[in-house]
Amino acid sequence: MSLRVNLLLAVVLLASCFWLVRSSYESRRLFVEHERAERAARELQIDYERLQLEKRVQATPLRVEKLARDKLKMAATTPAVTHYVAPSGGWMAPAPPVASAPASASASGGAR
Fold first, then answer.
1. Dihedrals φ, ψ of 86, to 5°?
2. pTM metric for this prediction
């Protein structure tokens, strides 16, 4: 009887050892996979930040205006080239230019 119990305990012990080795291997494999995923996430974050910076650089108002002028042959609007639509459906003559106040008076608030 004790021989059977000893054999049964030995089989259970071997099965437990195999299970422990397998779970350790699986744990190491998952840890390596996790580290790879974190490394990939860091690289993607760096790429995203670089692309955001490039987007901000490409979208500066001066660059957009220069590209519009050079490549699209666009011009800035002025009252002289603006046509207004009348309520009747026709067009009205452009409005006369508005005289602006001197820059020094507006900058100092008009009073000294």
1. -80, 155
2. 0.49
